[in-house]
Prior knowledge:
This protein has helices at residues 24-32, 40-43, 58-69, 73-83, 90-96, 114-128; strands at 3-9, 16-21, 48-55.
Amino acid sequence: MDSYVYFMTNSYNAVLYIGVTSNLEKRVWEHKNSVNKNSFTYKYNCNKLVHYEIFTDIRFAISREKQFKNWKREWKNELISKANSEWNDLSELWHQHGIAGQARNDDKAAVATTDDLEDINIAKQELLDGKTASF
Length: 135
């Protein structure tokens, strides 16, 4: 069963929420429909899916979530912008393109590849070294 790490934001792209789930469509629906009134996403109106990654093992997804939560906001922004430059709501594309029921790794989805992750790690190191990111 696939697992996902995902980023939600608000309409101003001012707040980021990072989560892990085994059912991305259901979880995004819950965020968008304010199922949990005491949640971070409800409080900050994070109802736009801007990035997700797919894993075959939930342990890897959880590890990646922890990694993201230790990243600077600038690195997260670069990751999102690289695959989704306009920060579109990726969940809207599922319905527009008939993909409801599952997140797909296609040209419409912001899914990081191994090469992307390598580029991001290089950029992260450049930022730590005081250089401009290379992407």
